[in-house]
Write a structure and sequence with these properties.
A: Butyryl-CoA Dehydrogenase, subunit A, domain 3, 0% strand, B: alpha+beta, four-stranded antiparallel β-sheet, 44% helix, 12% strand
Chain lengths: 195, 209
């Protein structure tokens, strides 16, 4: 059994050296990564939260979704942090969190489109138009909401939106046109003239 | 901006309306957000690692059962990563070794993706030089490490599973296959380090404890 003990002790030193080496380089690496992540959060979180708000009309939920998206990003950060298109990727993660949340919510309740109701009370006052806009937006399918917000709030290119949502460029163009037509129908001509 | 369909100019006021809709935005402390995301993100990472480690180990276990029932199981836990030559110990394993290598530890990179790990696993399961292999997760490596260092709890405390790499433990059909095997494996992405262990006859089959 002495042989076995020798083997165990030789394993010790090897594993120890390895563990120390890994520990050291990993600590330095992690520090740099965490700094980058903090900077990334500072630069990206406000935009994510606004986009989520426009789609949810709920600042708390928008904050939660942003938090979920950022945590997911951090969990893959060692692989992500040196990739180029982080802002677009962050939107993809955020929207997936939002779609998930919608799916979970709609599992329990029947979502009735409130389109006719909204159309009945068209805004006659310009100050309320932005509220009516978010309500009208909420009546669209969630992916179409995303297209409208990414295109017309974030000013993302059709190609970037297509990439974020994982659909083709022509789908983005088509759905965007349909969505705008629908918003116009709900909001009336005020929408086109206002501001 | 990319060339557009022209819809955008018609609805330029959308941007203005969105901006107004954001008028009641509440303030948030940005420092907390990053810290909380890091804490939650680390938790997600740990869970995922446990999950992949578990399923890979299960897959390897299944494989071992199918192909290697008649083959002696890989040697005792600790003999596989022996590092320093042990003079006079005839049955001890030597690692790193480049001659008479019978078993190989393939350490995976810290940033390996699930896909890359799968490719390594598939390569191992089809490589003719491989008699048998198994996956060792960070947790398993740490368990081993804790056991080896049970007399130095402080040192164990300073390490943690994340300090140890995941690895595949491979038994070769015969030592002559080692150079070609290394050449094949080191090309794979996500492989950090390959360490050969030379075990004289019988050493690999001893129980390590």
């Amino acid at each position: 059994m002495t042989d076995v003990t020798d083997v165990v002790s030789s394993d010790d030193s090897f594993t120890t050296v390895r563990a120390r080496r890994w520990g050291r380089t990993r600590r330095q690496d992690r520090l740099a990564q965490d700094e980058e992540f903090t900077a990334f959060v500072a630069a990206t979180a406000p935009g994510l939260r606004r986009t989520a708000y426009l789609m949810t009309r709920d600042w708390h939920l928008a904050q939660d979704l942003t938090q979920i998206a950022l945590a997911k990003m951090y969990s893959a950060w060692p692989r992500l942090w040196k990739t180029a298109n982080l802002p677009a990727y962050a939107r993809k993660v955020l929207l997936n969190a939002l779609f998930d949340q919608r799916r979970r919510r709609s599992d329990g309740e029947l979502v009735v489109a409130d389109l006719p109701d909204r159309a009945d009370r068209r805004p006659d006052d310009g100050a309320e138009l932005q509220v009516a806009l978010l309500d009208a937006l909420a009546s669209l399918p969630v992916r179409d909401q995303a297209i409208v917000v990414l295109r017309h709030w974030e000013d993302q290119s059709v190609e970037t939106v297509a990439e974020i949502l994982g659909v083709s460029v022509s789908v983005v163009k088509m759905q965007n046109m349909r969505s705008l037509a629908r918003l116009r129908a709900i909001l009336g001509e005020d929408f086109a003239r206002n501001s | 901006m990319q060339p557009d369909t022209g819809v955008k100019t018609v609805d330029e006021n959308l941007h203005v309306l969105f901006e107004r809709a954001l008028g009641d935005e509440p303030a948030t402390p940005p420092g907390d957000l990053a810290r909380e995301a890091m804490a939650e993100g680390s938790r997600l990472r740990r869970n995922r690692r446990l999950l992949t480690g578990g399923s890979a180990a299960a897959a390897v276990a299944a494989l071992v059962t199918i192909i290697a029932l008649n083959v002696t199981a890989p040697g005792g836990e600790s003999v596989q990563v022996a590092a320093v030559p042990v003079p006079g110990a005839t049955t001890a394993c030597v690692a790193p070794a480049s001659r008479s290598v019978t078993s190989v530890a393939i350490y995976l990179s810290d940033t390996i993706t699930d896909e890359q790990r799968l490719i390594v696993q598939q390569t191992l399961s089809t490589a003719p030089a491989v008699r048998d292999f198994r996956y060792e997760s960070r947790e398993q490596a740490f368990e081993k490490f804790k056991d080896l260092w049970k007399d130095s709890p402080d040192f164990v405390k300073s390490v943690g599973p994340e300090s140890l790499p995941e690895s595949y433990r491979v038994e070769l059909v015969k030592p002559a296959f080692y150079p070609a095997f290394v050449a094949q494996i080191k090309r794979l992405r996500g492989v950090q380090d390959i360490v050969g262990t030379s075990c004289p006859d019988g050493a690999g089959q001893q129980e390590g404890k």
